[in-house]
Amino acid sequence: MSNDKVVHWTELLKRRLASSTNGLTEEEKKVDETILFTKYYTEWRGGSSRENYKNIPRFYYRLPAEDEVLLQKLREESRILWFLLDNHQVSPMAEEEAMISYDCFLKFGDKAGVKSFFTARVYAKFPHNNPYGRISIIKGQFLIHVAYRLVIHNFKLEP
Question: pTM value?
Fold first, then answer.
């Protein structure tokens, strides 16, 4: 092949662009661009905007009524649990994240009344990405573990 017959790809793109936009004003080009952008953006987001309103998570839950004893008890225990965890977190906080050390982990088990669920083996199962060997209270599975174990202990269920 000779170099005379090979057309550079930029020239091909310029010709294609010039031929496809003939006869359109700037306003029409902007309208077409907006329509295409909206179409591709909604496809990328996973549906139309009306469908997305169905997927908004619920962020407010009403307080339990006086006659809902079980929900009242659950709320009370959750607040006590959070208070205990907050008192046992250690400083310095890593990246604005509450952390708990092994010593505080054991003390928390004593105060929560479920010492048998808070052992060295259990502590070792949580991810340790902290240089001081602490575990995250919220981001990791620790909070879920504590809530689960306390429910098992309080309701005398088999694990």
Answer: 0.49
